[in-house]
């Protein structure tokens, strides 16, 4: 999608600190980290949010969680970590391309409450 920030990051039009990439997903550090380690995992396909997951496109969610598990092991998150997907404006979503926040580290302060 041409006016989508994360589509531009996936294509390289906007630079990012890449962690991992395969044919289906892209993982990169959040520009405004809310924990000692905070990165995002996004499908390369433009899906607006978790509310737009269907039987047809839903396999990507399983793949994303396999990638998150692999990265968590490689990054040594042995004490645990948090996975968050904000949906819609009231859910705190600001970029309308499906993404999973992965947060790890002792002073994890987000999301509030
Ligand atoms: P949301 O609020 O939609 O759940 O999450 C969007 C996330 O994207 C925020 O945590 C925000 O810091 C991050 N973000 C926004 N713009 C950029 C950018 O240009 N580069 C990177 N790496 N992250 C961004
Ligand atoms: Zn997009």
Which properties best describe this structure?
binds guanosine-5'-monophosphate, 113 residues, alpha+beta, binds zinc ion, five-stranded antiparallel beta sheet
Structural account:
By secondary structure, the protein is α+β, with helices and mostly antiparallel strands. It is built from two helices and five strands. The protein has helices spanning about 5-10, 60-75; strands at about 20, 25-30, 35-45, 80-85, 100-105. The longest helix is centred in the middle third of the chain and has 17 residues, at about 60-75. The model has no long low-confidence stretch (mean pLDDT about 95). The chain binds guanosine-5'-monophosphate (5GP) and zinc ion. Zinc ion binds near residues 1 and 7.
What order do the SSEs take from the amino end to the carboxyl end, as H and E? HEEEHEE
The neighbouring-strand order within the major sheet is 1-2-3-5-4
Question: For the report, how would you describe the main beta sheet?
Answer: 5 strands, antiparallel
Unreliable spans are none
Question: What's the layout of helices and strands?
Answer:
Elements: H1 5-11, E1 18-21, E2 25-29, E3 37-43, H2 59-75, E4 82-84, E5 100-104
Antiparallel strand pairs: 1-2, 2-3, 3-5, 4-5
The chain binds guanosine-5'-monophosphate (5GP) and zinc ion (ZN).
């Amino acid at each position: 999608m041409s006016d989508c920030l994360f589509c531009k990051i996936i294509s390289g039009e906007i630079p990012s600190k890449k962690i991992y990439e395969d044919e289906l997903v892209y993982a990169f550090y959040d520009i405004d980290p809310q924990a000692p380690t905070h990165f995002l995992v996004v499908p390369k396909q433009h899906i607006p949010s978790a509310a737009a997951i269907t039987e047809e496109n839903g396999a990507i969610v399983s793949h994303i969680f396999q990638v998150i598990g692999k990265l968590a092991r490689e990054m040594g998150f042995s004490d645990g970590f948090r996975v968050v997907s904000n949906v819609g404006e009231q859910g705190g979503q600001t970029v309308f391309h499906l993404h999973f926040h992965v947060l790890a580290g002792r002073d994890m302060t987000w999301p509030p409450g």
